[in-house]
TrEMBL record:
This is Cytosolic carboxypeptidase 1. Belongs to the peptidase M14 family. Residues 294-312 have a biased composition (Basic and acidic residues). It is an enzyme of class 3 (hydrolase). The gene is LOC110535779. Residues 687-976 form the Peptidase M14 domain. The keyword Nucleus applies. Keywords: Carboxypeptidase, Cytoplasm, Hydrolase, Metal-binding, Metalloprotease, Mitochondrion, Nucleus, Protease, Zinc. One of its GO terms (cellular component) is nucleus. It holds the Pfam family Peptidase_M14. It is found in: Cytoplasm, Cytosol; Mitochondrion; Nucleus. Its cofactor is Zn(2+). PANTHER family: CYTOSOLIC CARBOXYPEPTIDASE, CYTOSOLIC CARBOXYPEPTIDASE 1. The active site is at E940 (proton donor/acceptor).
Length: 1037
């Protein structure tokens, strides 16, 4: 039956209800409606609700209750219908309370406790009523809680459906903290535990799991308050549930473990709100539960059309913007003297250098006490000499005091002394005196010196130079004044040639891990609870007794605040929050040493914040082994087994949770066995890419510059921490100084790229590295690309956050990608000046053709884009708009479409072009709306891997990320052809570019097939590209 027919039936039924008092006629209509709604499902119910059907049924309940006695059949049919209609009506609970039907149902329930036929639909309706918090409190006061405990009971084969609905209703009532306290006061917690034990003991064939689950749900809701958790522990609830769960693999205890465990604070000294200890305060809102809201539209989508239209005028006067002309010398260059140009020009002093701001820092971040206390003898030797092909250098380790701490006099760097490697080894330094001194030290110690050979990776890593990296570190400023260099950043990373598949998690792993956590509460005497690393102890964070692992995170981009040994081979790890912030615990990068070969270590990061993670869907942590590196394999590899991510029992303070109370942290856990004795290993959330690495890469890229390449590096501004923010300009030099060539050079369209506004999204920097290497390359495609565009690139928007190991914020404690609407020149200098560059371009009518901000995504797979579209945003809402208001060029889809055809990791299906309110201050939306750039994007790269295309089932690596950066450039070339005037599309130069694109794809196919990736053959790939090109051009034309 169509919707129109159903509507007519509902209208007729409404008229009959209004015009008849005959009981049998009303019953017949109810029978028909019941049949219609039962067969039709949710759509018919929705139509019925929209026509006011709920109000009619509630009115019939009220009028029927006035009869003496009320008709049992009428009440049965009415409540059966209400049970179907209620969940679809968001205001059902409010309507029932105001109408008076709520009290009618309660009275009916009290009078028919033995009438199971009528009791079942009444309970079903009561369950829906209870989803409203005000109703739940009212029902509790009216004694409904006690009625539920009269219905539920020990194991019985009779009336199991009734018992299941009763438990669901009780669970809904207990979501109210007032009712939870009432249940505790009336000693209902031991009763529920007894009922659960009885059903567990007798339901041996697990036919009534829903009943046991319902009891657990009631206990979970009671333990949402402190009194409930205390009552649960006092009743020995944790041991009862643990014992029953270990016997039965069917019981879903891990799902409720975090709520049933006693809440505790993290084992660190943090500022907490005193009111956090009182979580029993009832917050009564006259709204339905969250589950019902899930079926409705996204309220975050922007619905104001005026905010979805580009701004007509520039918000800043041109005189104020004119100072940024110095960053665009290429737009006025006459090239009268064609000579090799120095890459570093136009160094502009930031406004922040004149108005320095005192930053309040937390934890270990101090400006007057450099932290370089390290445990000595990583290799159980007193010296390590670093050899290169031309010279040999050495430096002493830090020696131990008798109390297990470090002797600071041995490790505090003196003026001019190079940074230490994180193991205590001095970085490479010049001069022969050090070489002689190193040999003397080795002789004095009776030959105990060890040789550490630096792997020669010059051929594999042309942009990496350990000596240059150390020089870059010297000029990098950090809040803790780091004096050490991590081995992976020093040695470099060569992408492995083998596949790294997305990890398939073994069934039951999370259950096992949670049971091990619960055992800590049941058997606390078995737990060591020994702190082995603590940055809050500034004098000596490393605590070594020779039996535990040694940790370190005091190097650039490092993040680990505390390590606690829980069991012999198990460690709890606490991450640092972003500087000047109380949250954003996600990025980690730390060193581990002193391990035993083959021992089953377990690491638990216990203060993660996000509710879910790709660690639950196949992502692994990254590990770098120094022993592997000095053996010729310097690389980060995916590692770890039994990886899972789940809510734990550590409470987040309301300060750290944005004012919300009752929030918990999450645990990311993984197991690890080490293969090398006396190894030094590093673990990271994703492939690290430090600020010093960027500076090194930019200097190495300059060496690739040929006379045909125009490359200029400016200092856009200085950050709060005193680090410079580089701005790159890359294009092709004009072929001659003729007016035509100079004019063509100046009038090339601009492409503006930025990256790494969020420090923890290191994959964005690897994508940017691929883009920069392609742009500076010598291939015909790179040359064509430089001739087609002028590139303005800010490769790292948040240097301070990267240096100090933040995940999302700058030193101001703010997310810089939420400051684009009104950036402060003092607090957000990189955003302020980058936006000013774009505003200047808009003012001179040279707005970029493309703006793209590179990001990383922690919860999705593949690479994809977010763009901005007026039409697609309006389509997702109920806004009424005329076709004139929605007029929009669909060119914003062109670049993502090209990428979906050329880049193996890119997924068009994951792209979105909807503008949301929460994203209105991001770069993408502000550049689209205020600068007027139609093709304004955020390009998100997965931290995990791909679930489509040629990389399906594989974790993403640096090779794939750099490839994505190069493919973005290739896509810009095809975009150039598609956006050129029609008479120029068949120009020989652009046709040659298209031919080169195809040929390059084929060459990549052949070479990468040898390495494992399984590309198509040349013939297959050529046919695919030609087919995609024809289809795409048909679509775009």
């Amino acid at each position: 039956m169509c919707v129109h027919t159903c509507t007519n039936v509902f209208v007729i039924a409404y008229m009959l209800f209004c015009n008849t008092q005959d009981l049998q006629t009303i019953l017949n209509i109810l029978y028909i409606l019941n049949e219609l709604l039962t067969v039709g499902g949710g759509r018919r119910v929705g139509v019925f609700v929209s026509k006011g059907g709920t109000g009619i049924l509630l009115q019939l309940v009220l009028s029927g209750s006035k009869e003496s006695p009320p008709s049992e059949e009428l009440m049965l049919q009415l409540h059966s219908l209400l049970a179907k209609v209620g969940p679809k009506d968001r205001k059902f609970g409010v309507k029932a309370r105001l109408n008076g039907a709520l009290n009618v149902t309660v009275n009916l329930l009290k009078q028919n406790l033995q009438n199971h036929k009528l009791l079942l639909p009444c309970l079903q309706v009561l369950r829906v009523y209870s989803s409203n918090s005000v109703n739940a409190v009212s029902l509790g006061k009216n004694g409904v809680l006690e009625l539920m405990f009269k219905i539920i009971g020990p194991y019985s084969k009779k009336n199991t459906s009734l018992l299941k609905v009763s438990l669901d209703t009780l669970g809904a009532l207990l979501k109210s903290k007032t009712n939870a306290r009432r249940a505790v006061d009336r000693a209902h917690v031991p009763v529920l535990l007894y009922i659960y034990q009885d059903w567990h003991r007798n339901d041996t064939r697990h036919r009534h799991m829903l009943i046991r689950k319902g009891v657990l749900g009631c206990l979970k809701n009671i333990t949402n308050i402190k009194l409930g958790r205390k009552a649960f522990i006092d009743a020995d609830g944790m041991r009862i549930l643990y014992n029953t769960s270990t016997v039965s693999t069917v019981t879903k205890l891990p799902k409720t473990q975090s709520c049933l465990c006693p809440r505790v604070w993290l084992p660190v000294d943090d500022v907490v709100d005193e009111s956090d200890d009182n979580d029993d305060v009832e917050t009564e809102n006259d709204t339905e539960n969250e589950e019902e809201d899930k079926d409705h539209h996204n309220d975050d989508i922007e619905t104001d059309i005026n905010k979805l239209r580009p701004k007509e005028t520039n918000s800043r006067p041109f005189e104020e913007l004119k100072i940024y002309e110095r960053f665009f010398l290429e737009l006025s260059e006459d090239f009268q003297v064609m000579q090799d140009r120095h890459p570093f020009v136009s160094l502009v002093e930031s406004s922040t250098s004149k108005n320095q701001i005192n930053i309040v820092t937390f934890h270990f971040k101090t400006s007057d006490s450099p932290i370089h206390c390290r445990q000595s003898k990583i290799y159980y030797l007193k010296y390590i000499y670093i050899y290169s092909t031309s010279q040999k250098f050495g430096h002493t380790y830090s020696f131990q005091d008798h109390d297990g701490c470090c002797d600071h006099s041995q490790v505090r760097p003196q003026p001019g002394q190079p940074p230490l490697l994180a193991g205590g080894v001095a970085a490479r330094q010049g001069g022969g005196a050090e070489e002689t001194l190193a040999e003397e030290w080795a002789e004095e110690e009776g030959g105990e010196g060890a040789v550490l050979e630096v792997p020669d990776t010059a051929l594999l890593l042309p942009l990496h130079d350990p000596d240059l990296y150390v020089e870059m570190v010297k000029s990098t400023r950090s809040v803790p004044q780091y004096s050490e260099v991590a081995y992976p950043d020093y040695f470099g990373h060569v992408a492995p040639t083998f596949r790294e598949h997305i990890l398939e998690r073994v069934y039951g792993v999370q259950r096992t891990k949670i049971f091990q956590d619960i055992e800590r509460l049941i058997h606390p005497n078995d737990i060591l609870d020994k702190v082995v690393y603590d940055l809050d102890i500034q004098s000596c964070p490393v605590i070594d007794d020779g039996e535990s692992l040694k940790f370190n995170s005091q190097f650039e981009s490092g993040n680990l605040r505390k390590a606690i040994q829980a069991r012999k081979f198990e460690y709890d790890l606490v991450l640092n929050s972003d500087i000047n912030s109380n949250h954003y615990h996600q990025w980690f990068y730390f060193e581990v040493s002193g391990m035993r070969v083959g021992a089953p270590y377990r690491f638990n990061i216990i203060n993660c914040e996000k509710s879910n993670s790709q660690f639950n869907y196949g992502m692994q942590v990254l590990m770098y082994s120094v022993q592997e590196a000095i053996s010729g394999r310097p690389r980060w590899v995916r590692t770890g087994t039994d990886i899972c991510y789940y809510k734990n029992h550590f409470s987040r303070s309301s300060i750290a949770a944005g004012g919300q109370k009752g929030k918990s942290y999450y645990t990311m856990t993984f197991s690890m066995t080490f293969n090398h004795k006396d190894d030094v290993c590093y673990f990271a959330y994703h492939y690290p890419y430090t600020y010093s690495t960027l500076k090194m890469h930019l200097q190495k890229l300059e060496a690739l510059r040929t006379p045909q390449i125009y490359m200029r590096q400016d200092i856009l501004c200085e950050t709060l921490g005193g680090n410079s923010c580089p701005l790159l300009t890359i294009t092709a030099m004009p072929e001659s100084t003729s007016n035509d060539q100079i004019c063509q050079f100046r009038n090339r369209p601009l492409v503006f790229l930025s990256s790494r506004v969020h420090p923890g999204e290191t994959n964005a920097s690897w994508v940017m590295k691929g883009t920069l290497e392609f742009l500076m390359g010598s291939s015909p495609l790179a040359h064509s690309l430089r001739e087609a565009y002028i590139f303005k690139i800010v490769p790292m928007l948040n240097p301070d956050g990267v240096v100090n190991g933040n995940h999302r914020c700058s030193l101001s404690g703010e997310d810089l990608n939420r400051q684009w609407q009104s950036p402060s020149p003092e607090l957000h200098p990189t955003i302020y000046h980058t936006k000013s560059l774009l505003q200047y371009l808009a003012a001179i009518q040279r707005a970029p053709l493309v703006f793209c901000d590179y990001h990383g995504h922690s919860r999705k797979k593949n690479v994809f884009m977010y763009g901005c579209s007026l039409k697609e945003t309006v389509w997702q809402t109920n806004i009424s708009a005329t076709s004139c208001e929605l007029h929009e060029d669909l060119g914003y889809r062109t670049l993502p479409k090209i990428l979906s055809q050329t880049a193996p990791a890119f997924s068009m299906a994951s792209c979105s072009f909807v503008v949301e309110r929460s994203k209105e201050a991001t770069a993408r939306v502000v550049v689209w709306r205020e600068i007027g750039v139609q093709r304004s994007y955020t390009m998100e790269s997965t931290l995990c891997g791909c679930d489509q295309g040629k990389y399906k089932g594989l974790q993403i690596g640096t090779r794939e990320l750099e490839e994505m950066g190069a493919q973005f450039c290739v896509a810009l070339l095809r975009l150039k052809r598609l956006t050129s005037p029609l008479e120029l599309r068949n120009h020989a130069h652009l046709l040659d570019v298209e031919s080169d694109l195809i040929e390059t794809r084929c060459k990549v196919s052949r070479s990468d097939t040898c390495t494992h990736r399984g590309y198509y053959s040349k013939q297959e790939l050529t046919l695919e590209i030609y087919t995609e090109t024809i289809i795409f051009e048909c679509e775009t034309n």
